[in-house]
């Protein structure tokens, strides 16, 4: 049977993050991708110039259309900019008894532009953390959710990941890409006591747009194919590491370019 993953997220008109990055990732990893748009952004590699929110009722209508017909094996949730949209998504997840939900609590674009209104943070925590199998915050996002300083080092990351579990998350992948040191370290912490670190050498590049979207959607793709959570995370980390390393092979825009979602296919293609 065909593995199917659904992304509920915002559109990036520049193609590097959001819905576009998620669908590219699903396709690159051999999973059929469906989508629910929560917002439209006027965006390129230089920044976000405008955001148009999709009405909550229409977000829910998209969810109902997809989930009533397609046998969705995993769901990735990305940009949900407003409280009413978050509540609509939560209600849709309950109505369709959704499982294998990966929540990427997107708050700020790579350009620094805000993607989540301040009053939506508490709603995101209350409504979606308990409904997700995994949340994938980066260090600044975790700090904002916990109203604390950005974690520095493994012990601080461990403490903040546990605090997110205490807020209602079932599993946390705290991403260390914004940290220091020669390696990027991500921590998987679960309620049953599993602690696992995933590391990769840092690669110096300005072309890292869409990294977080890509990682969370790659994890969802692994779950859609039936992988256990640790294996899905390990595979996603490897995929994103290669996508970042290959990013400089693309020449997209004048700002923060995207990671190379199709690095494996394009490197072996005969098409010039």
UniProtKB/TrEMBL annotation:
Keywords: Kinase, Transferase. It holds the Pfam family Phos_pyr_kin. InterPro entries: HMP/HMP-P_kinase_dom (IPR004399), PM/HMP-P_kinase-1 (IPR013749), Ribokinase-like (IPR029056). Its EC number is 2.7.1.49. Gene3D superfamilies: 3.40.1190.20. Pathway: Cofactor biosynthesis; thiamine diphosphate biosynthesis. Signal peptide: none annotated. The keyword rRNA processing does not apply. The keyword Transferase applies. It is an enzyme of class 2 (transferase). GO terms for molecular function: hydroxymethylpyrimidine kinase activity; phosphomethylpyrimidine kinase activity. Residues 12-260 form the Pyridoxamine kinase/Phosphomethylpyrimidine kinase domain. CDD domains: HMPP_kinase (cd01169). PANTHER family: HYDROXYMETHYLPYRIMIDINE_PHOSPHOMETHYLPYRIMIDINE KINASE THI20-RELATED (PTHR20858:SF17), PHOSPHOMETHYLPYRIMIDINE KINASE (PTHR20858). This is hydroxymethylpyrimidine kinase. It comes from Pannonibacter anstelovis.
């Amino acid at each position: 049977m065909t593995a199917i993953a659904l992304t509920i997220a915002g559109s990036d008109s520049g193609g590097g993050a959001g819905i576009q990055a998620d669908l590219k990732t699903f396709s690159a990893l051999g999973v059929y991708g469906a989508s629910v748009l929560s917002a439209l952004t006027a965006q390129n590699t230089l920044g976000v110039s405008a955001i148009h929110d999709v009405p909550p009722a229409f977000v829910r209508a998209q969810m109902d259309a997809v989930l009533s017909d397609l046998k969705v094996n995993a769901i990735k949730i990305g940009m949900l900019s407003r409280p009413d949209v978050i509540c609509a998504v939560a209600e849709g997840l309950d109505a369709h008894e959704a499982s294998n939900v990966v929540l990427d609590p997107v708050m700020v674009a790579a350009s620094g532009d805000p993607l989540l209104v301040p009053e939506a943070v508490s709603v995101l925590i209350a409504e979606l953390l308990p409904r997700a199998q995994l949340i994938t915050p980066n260090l600044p996002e975790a700090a904002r959710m916990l109203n604390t300083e950005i974690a520095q080092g493994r012990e601080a990351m461990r403490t903040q990941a546990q605090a997110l579990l205490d807020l209602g998350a079932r599993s946390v992948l705290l991403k260390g890409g914004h940290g220091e040191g020669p390696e990027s370290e991500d921590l998987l912490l679960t309620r049953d006591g599993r602690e696992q670190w995933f590391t990769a050498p840092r690669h110096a590049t300005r072309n890292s747009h869409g990294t977080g979207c890509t990682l969370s959607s790659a994890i969802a793709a692994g779950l859609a194919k039936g992988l256990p959570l640790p294996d899905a995370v390990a595979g996603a980390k490897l995929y994103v590491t290669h996508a970042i390393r290959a990013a400089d092979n693309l020449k997209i825009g004048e700002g923060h370019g995207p990671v190379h979602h199709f690095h494996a296919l394009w490197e072996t293609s005969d098409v010039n």
